[in-house]
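Lab meeting, item 3. Inverse folding demo.
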């Protein structure tokens, strides 16, 4: 006998319920054994390794093309200025001296081996630069006169290796060849030149440099030459003796001299290391840091055949301009600090005394004369040749700057203003 539930269902409803009754069932996945799980995990790992290797191969294959087609902007080179040592303060030179073995009969060979090891590492930053040969250059080489100069790898802006050198190698050349320590030669171009200080920066594209050369190259560290003292041990590397890759050891004989140039001056590190009169190179401390640049000649009227170097700390602001392809500001004033003694004895106002003015210079065009005293450049007060040099280097080529000065007249010094348009010497 049918029950009430069956009696209430129509035939269509009953058949529909039977038709979809399987949807109410719970389907449970078949359990995976540990062995199967391990196999699947291993399979995924293998696939991942294969995909990673393939991606790496594709990346390295396309990397040169990508770098060539999609080069980023060159990084700005920043060279922080060095602080002057404090009076009575302990300098790094003490640590340098402590790291050098004592020179006695038993340790001499060990000492020289240590120094040669440091020189070999420092030499990775040294290159030889030569202009592309002309007929006149070949004649010079036949007579034994080298047209090359030593350079130091100073910076890497991501696109180029930048090499600092004496501008004597520039001349009228339009192209240059750089030889790295592995003996390979590469074409270089002039990034920027400053004829006032006699410095130049050359560039070699990174993409042109072979992998084998990179192992023999390093960007040299620019040290703090303000910490160098008389008696410090130093090494000179470069074209010191009329040929490339020369090396010499010695000590700093004096730090008391300065070389004046228009709009500033530079400390001179004098040494007892012999060199040819036209030798160029780089002076290092025993940490392998650059502390000086050895030009063709520091004093033209000197008969000294010893290495004399421009102190690198005084050149850092100029190097930064050149490394970034910017013109070094130029005014054209030879000046000297008005000392306290001159103020008291001569009644001169404070500032810098203009000794001479370059005839073809912004200073001459603005009306500045020998005998004038400059006491302000823009917003900077001038109390010494050092502060004047710093103020000039804050300006930019083409900028008009107010120079405030005083000029002697019948009734004493009177104020006079000069509006100077900053130039450059390239």
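The presenter then showed the designed sequence:
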């Amino acid at each position: 006998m049918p029950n009430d539930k069956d009696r209430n269902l129509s035939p269509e409803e009953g058949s529909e319920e039977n038709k979809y009754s399987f949807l109410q069932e719970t389907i449970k996945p078949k359990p995976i054994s540990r062995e199967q799980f391990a196999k699947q995990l291993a399979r995924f790992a293998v696939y991942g390794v294969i995909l990673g290797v393939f991606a790496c191969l594709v990346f390295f294959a396309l990397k040169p093309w990508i770098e060539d087609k999609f080069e980023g902007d060159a990084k700005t080179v920043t060279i922080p200025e060095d602080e002057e040592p404090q009076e009575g303060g302990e300098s790094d030179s003490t640590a340098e001296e402590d790291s050098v073995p004592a020179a006695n009969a038993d340790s001499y060979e060990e000492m020289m081996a240590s120094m040669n090891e440091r020189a070999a590492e420092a030499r990775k930053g040294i290159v030889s630069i030569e202009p592309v040969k002309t007929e006149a250059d070949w004649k010079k080489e036949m007579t034994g006169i080298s047209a090359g100069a030593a350079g130091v790898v100073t910076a890497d802006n991501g696109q180029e290796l930048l090499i600092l050198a004496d501008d004597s190698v520039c001349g009228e050349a339009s192209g240059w060849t750089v030889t790295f320590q592995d003996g390979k030669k590469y074409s270089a171009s002039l990034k920027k030149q400053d004829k006032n200080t006699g410095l130049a920066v050359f560039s070699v594209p990174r993409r042109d440099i072979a992998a084998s050369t990179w192992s023999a190259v390093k960007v040299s560290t620019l040290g703090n030459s303000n910490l160098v003292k008389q008696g410090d041990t130093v090494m000179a590397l470069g074209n010191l003796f009329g040929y490339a890759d020369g090396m010499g050891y010695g000590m700093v004989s004096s730090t008391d001299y300065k070389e004046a140039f228009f709009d500033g001056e530079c400390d001179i590190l004098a040494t007892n290391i012999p060199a040819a009169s036209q030798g160029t190179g780089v002076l290092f401390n025993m940490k392998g840091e650059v502390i000086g640049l050895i030009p063709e000649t520091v004093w033209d009227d000197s008969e000294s055949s010893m290495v004399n170097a421009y102190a690198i700390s005084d050149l850092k602001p100029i190097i930064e301009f050149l490394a970034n392809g910017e013109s070094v500001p130029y005014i054209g004033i030879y000046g000297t600090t008005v000392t306290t003694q001159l103020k008291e004895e001569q009644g001169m106002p404070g500032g810098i005394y203009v000794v001479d003015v370059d005839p073809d210079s912004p200073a001459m065009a603005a009306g500045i004369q020998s005998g004038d005293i400059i006491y302000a450049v823009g917003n900077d007060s001038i109390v010494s040749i050092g502060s004047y040099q710093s103020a000039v280097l804050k300006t930019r080529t083409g900028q008009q700057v107010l120079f405030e000065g005083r000029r002697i007249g019948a009734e004493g010094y009177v104020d006079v203003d000069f509006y100077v348009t900053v130039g450059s010497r390239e």
